Amino acid sequence: MNTTIDHETSRMVDDASVEGVRTKRVFAFLIDAVIVFLLCIPVSIVIALLGILTLGLGWILYAVMFPVVAVSYVAFTMGGTQQATIGMRANGIHILRLDGQKIDGITAVVHSVLFWAGNVVLTPLVLLVTLFSDRKRTLHDLLLGTVVARDRV
Length: 153
Prior knowledge:
This protein is mostly helical.
């Protein structure tokens, strides 16, 4: 087991790095939701054309369009080099793993899926966990060993 802690991970322990993160996460989510909806517009046009070409069979893809676009968006942004979605970057936050490793696309997707599963079960109460957890971590952060912190100033 690797017990070394890099500079970025040790910074997460600092209370200043998680100050205001809860509010920033809410605003980041709203921005990301708008972006995903906007990304669905060209995808829906492609599906419409595909449906015409396949005599209606392609239109079945509308059932999975939003989740596929959202998961792809999260995998490429949060799982990318900046470790943050566009909404997170706009709010000056990013995600980190507690073991110091980078968030990969799979972890980013699992993080998003657990977020939505938590919202289905707990509705907005999912944010209550941040009031009692260390570093204002949500339930899906606790399960995955991640934390959302402010960017360096």
